[in-house]
Amino acid sequence: MQLEGPLLLVGGGKMGGALLDGWLARGISAGDVIVVEPAEAGRTALAAKGVRAVADASELSGSPAPSVIVLAVKPQVMDAVVPPYARFAAAGSVFLSVAAGRTLGFFAQHLGASAAVVRTIPNTPAAVGRGMTVLCANSNVDAAARKVCDELMRGVGETGWVEDEALIDAATAVGGSGPAYVFYMIECMANAGIAAGLPEDLARRIARQTVCGAGELAWQSEEPPEQLRKNVTSPGGTTAAALDVLMAEDGLQPLVEKAVDAAVKRSRELAG
User: Fold this and answer.
1) Are the beta carbons of 94 and 116 closer than 8 angstroms?
2) Measured in whole angstroms, how far is the alpha carbon of residue 179 from the centre of its chain?
3) Which of 17, 18, 63, 267 is the most exposed place for a label (fewest CB within 10 A)?
4) Segments in 199-237 forming alpha helices (H)
5) Torsional class of 134: left (φ above 0), alpha (ψ -120 to 50), beta (otherwise)
6) Could you give the CA distance from residue 262 to residue 233 in angstroms, rounded to a whole number?
């Protein structure tokens, strides 16, 4: 990855920390990264990794303009955090946001209409390098900057792009919120196992490992999920009996569609 200046990470929390670890693992030099982290304990931990850490934007005066500024703070504090970095927009820095609900228009308002901004929706499996991030760029982001932002987010998993920002809401509902659906599926399977007579600990272990194993198989396999489902379903067998329930007209598919629709609507409300 070719960076024409330092890489500035604003926020060293869970997502910021996952991104940093991913970048370092992919060969980005710790000396090329600066992290803005208000917590002293966080700065100490970053220093142990060889990364320069500062408490706030005022400590960046005199530093060269960052190639990319990654905004990894909570959406509710963006209004206060973003303005001090507006001076870098004129210097050609690209802003990469990982905050939900903060639109490209929001950043244009705070950084100026000429700012190059990429909005992203990562998800929590990024913490283990298996995330899915959807990106959307404004018209000021050129091909080279798009490539750099894509490579940065690939440090924590897979990426995909949308050109229409309105699709970010759907990406949020499916990918951003999706891990919670899967975790709840594990809960439901475990509780059903307990109801069927399994010891609680064993039921929870079976449910967790089954979902994790199926996910790994889906990730490694070249076959689509539909075929993987068919592979494990013997005609007239136990799986087929269960799928008759899950795939009924009032089964899992319409329920998931209803859930995703609710998440899409809420995402639009939050973006406001």
Assistant:
1) yes
2) 10
3) 63
4) 200-220, 225-231
5) beta
6) 31
**What is the pTM for the complete model shown?**
0.90
Query: Mean pLDDT for each consecutive 10-residue tract of the chain (272 residues)?
Result: 83 91 91 94 92 92 89 92 93 93 94 96 93 97 96 96 96 96 98 98 98 97 97 97 97 97 92 76
Tokens of 55: 């408490």
Q: Across the chain, how many H-helices and E-strands are there? A: 11, 8
Q: How many other CB atoms sit within 10 Å of the CB of residue 213?
A: 10
Q: Which amino acid is at 202?
A: L
CATH class of 7-170: alpha beta
Please say whether the beta carbons of 69 and 75 come within 8 A: no
pLDDT of residue 1: 63
Query: Are 98 and 122 spatial neighbours (Cβ–Cβ below 8 Å)?
Result: yes
Is domain 178-271 classified as CATH 1.10.1140.10? Answer: no
User: Rounded to the nearest 5 degrees, what angle is found at the Cα of 85, between the Cα atoms of 83 and 90?
Assistant: 110
Q: How far apart are CA 104 and CA 165, in angstroms?
A: 8
* CA nearest to 67, candidates 18, 28, 102, 104: 28
Compute how many other C-beta atoms are within 10 angstroms of the C-beta atom of residue 258: 10
pLDDT score recorded for residue 4: 73
Domain ranges of the chain: 7-170, 178-271
Q: Cα(1)–Cα(56) distance, rounded to whole angstroms?
A: 27
Rounded to an integer, what distance in angstroms lies between the CA atom of residue 33 and that of residue 254?
A: 46
Tokens of 96: 């990469």
Residues 40 and 9: their CA atoms lie apart, in Å, by 16
Alpha-helical regions (H) of 36-129: 40-48, 78-81, 104-111
